[in-house]
Amino acid sequence: MYILGNVVVFLCVNVVGALMHSLMETAQRRAFLDTRNCIAARLDMEDENEKLERLLLSVLPQHVAMEMKNDIISPVEGQFHKIYIQKHEQVR
Which residue from 64, 38, 69 is spatially nearest to 53, judged by alpha carbons? Predict the structure, then answer.
């Protein structure tokens, strides 16, 4: 009788342990995939930012592009549009 009780307890503990292992494995796999997807999205975004910066520099002079980039990064309140035009005197 005691042996049968021990066998039942042993089987129940093993079933619960296998179930917990399975649930933990699934949670760890999901966390890993989420982290991998986040890193991949970050790398893709960095690549796109580099492409956009190269495109901007191909259209505008570097000093104007950098001024625009700095204004976008740290906007001034109340400033809706800024015109990036400079007037030069006595230019030939």
Answer: 69
